[in-house]
TrEMBL record:
Catalyzes the reversible isomerization of glucose-6-phosphate to fructose-6-phosphate. Belongs to the GPI family. Gene3D superfamilies: 1.10.1390.10, Glucose-6-phosphate isomerase like protein, domain 1. Keywords: Cytoplasm, Gluconeogenesis, Glycolysis, Isomerase. The keyword Cytoplasm applies. Pathway: Carbohydrate degradation; glycolysis; D-glyceraldehyde 3-phosphate and glycerone phosphate from D-glucose: step 2/4; Carbohydrate biosynthesis; gluconeogenesis. It is found in: Cytoplasm. This is Glucose-6-phosphate isomerase.
Length: 535
């Protein structure tokens, strides 16, 4: 018998067990919660018992998670399909040397960080200006990790903004950049173009649009552009001075890149000190991940809960539910982090996976979701594990009563998911409302909650830059651990390539420059209809 099979058998054996039963013996909450730094991670409202946890930890040990993590931190080329190291952690670890192919990469990391800091200060203090004076607005143009990370982080840390306003453009849909630029002053706007190769079609299309917009009022628009790119040749051709080009190595993947130059917009918004706190929080989580025993390791435990629910309980989706409006973009960020990383169908050795890969990740901030999709979570036919997160304290002391209500809702939802409401309880409620007979039974059945729906809760004092950095690093390492256990490469993303290739081929067909021979009948029909509608 393998550990994997033992866990499959265990999941089958506890399938009908109510989670609430686990609280009848001992101090369940304390036994299935862990703390590190500002975080309390409570996974007691899952069907994981001591035996299951022991098996899950043994699974992580069998898959050599610790050795694989150390290989990542020390610069080994664990992204073997692309022949690259995976060193986004080096961007937030400015004190320790890290080597790749025998070369210490940290001097360059530190030098780039120092240049970012100097430029951010110049923008914030008005030493770097636009044609019309001090920069009032920053527009970050990117897509994927070059957009989701900084856009999500800038919103999350809004209470710490004391720099220019920041805006983010990603979609090639012209409506996105049109609506973003509307109302901005080109003479006091800085545009940051985030593309490692400076060839990303969506990003460069939007960059050219922004340049034309700025040229209507600014004599030399390229002087108000900065680039986050490794292509000195292409950024120079665009007209951007090398002093405003910030590069990063190929061992920084897009969805892991906001700790370095891709985070420039965030640094400008909250200042180098706030950004340093953001890095510090992530570095602290890195150290915890490397050193803590698996049974006390937050990223490992979060991953093991996810593996238990997805691979062994066969729950196909996962809802991320931050009770913090400023974390509104976190579920979308985690969609990319998880689904681009672990949405694979073959293992590291190129063989088909014998089990499901990563789950579908989705969510919205509370309490909005309660009035949208929680109905399905509570009473639908599919079980959807939920991951709640909430701060004990908000940033608005004069609105403390509202934050108390927010926290109450968060804790109540996890309680309701676990407890549910029995038919007997629902019947008694409806009897008191005057219902009788068959109608009593009918009305009561509509008000039954199955309960025993699993959830975890991440609790922290307040959403500060350090806490936020820790949260993002926690989830990064969670995805890494899940990928190691599944035996897949979490750091390539070949699945995004085919659609991009076909889109480039279809553009001339839509313009009538190519007949589109070889396209399927559906695609030809859709192209023809688009052309006819355009006249």
């Amino acid at each position: 018998m393998t550990i994997w099979q033992d866990l499959l058998d265990k999941a089958q054996s506890v399938q009908s067990r109510e989670i609430g039963e686990l609280f009848e013996k001992g101090n369940r909450a304390a036994g299935f919660s862990r703390e590190t730094g500002p975080f309390l991670f409570d996974f007691s409202k899952t069907n994981i018992d001591a035996e299951t946890l022991d098996l899950l930890v043994k699974l992580a040990e069998e898959k050599e998670v610790a050795a694989r993590a150390e290989a990542m931190f020390t610069g080994e080329k664990i992204n073997d399909t692309e022949g690259r190291a995976v060193l986004h952690t080096a961007l937030r670890n400015l004190d320790t040397d890290v080597f790749v192919d025998g070369e210490n990469v940290m001097p360059e990391v530190r030098a780039t960080y120092a240049r970012m800091e100097a430029f951010a200060r110049d923008v914030r203090e008005g030493k770097f200006t636009g044609q019309g004076g001090k920069i009032t607005d920053v527009v970050n143009i990117g897509i994927g990790g070059s957009d989701l990370g900084p856009a999500m982080a800038t919103l999350a840390l809004a209470p710490y903004h004391d720099g220019p306003r920041c805006h983010f453009v990603s979609n090639v849909d012209g409506a996105h950049i049109h609506d973003t630029l509307a109302g901005l002053n080109p003479e006091t706007t800085l545009v940051i173009v985030a593309s490692k190769t400076f060839t990303t079609i969506e990003t460069m299309t939007n960059a050219e649009t922004a340049k034309r917009w700025m040229a209507e009022k600014v004599s030399d628009p390229a002087q108000q552009f900065a680039a986050l790119s490794t292509s000195a040749e292409k950024t120079a051709a665009f007209g951007i001075d090398q002093a405003r080009v910030f590069g990063f190595a190929d061992w920084v993947g897009g969805r892991y890149s906001m700790w370095g130059p891709i985070g420039l917009s965030l640094m400008i918004a909250i200042g180098p000190e706030g950004f340093a706190g953001f890095l510090r929080g992530a570095a602290t989580m890195d150290a915890h991940f490397r050193k803590a025993e698996f049974k006390d390791n937050l990223p490992v435990l979060l991953a093991l809960v996810g593996i238990w629910h997805n691979q062994f309980c066969d729950y196909a989706t996962r809802a991320v539910l931050p009770y913090d409006q400023r974390l509104a973009r976190l579920p979308a960020y985690l969609q990319q982090l998880e689904m681009e990383s672990n949405g694979k169908r073959v293992s590291m050795d190129g063989k088909d996976l014998p089990y499901n890969s990563g789950p579908v990740v989705w969510g919205e901030p509370g309490t909005n979701g309660q009035h949208a999709f929680y109905q399905l979570i509570h009473q639908g036919t599919r079980v959807i594990p939920c991951e709640f997160m909430v701060a004990a304290e908000g940033h608005e002391p004069d609105l403390a009563h509202q934050h108390t209500l927010l926290v109450a809702n968060c804790l109540a939802q996890s309680e309701a998911l676990m407890r549910g409401r029995s038919l007997a309880e629902a019947t008694e409620i409806m009897r008191k409302k005057g219902f009788e007979g068959d109608e009593l039974d009918r009305q009561a059945r509509h008000r039954v909650f199955p309960g025993s729906r699993p959830s975890t809760t991440l609790l922290y004092p307040k959403l500060t830059p350090e806490v936020f950095g820790g949260i993002v690093a926690l989830y990064e390492h969670r995805v890494f651990v899940e990928g190691v256990i599944l035996g897949i490469n979490s750091f390539d993303q070949w699945g995004v390539e085919l659609g991009k290739e076909l889109a480039l081929a279809l553009a001339p067909v839509l313009k009538g420059e190519d007949a589109g021979e070889g396209k399927d009948g559906s695609t030809r029909q859709l192209v023809a209809r688009v052309q006819s509608l355009r006249g």
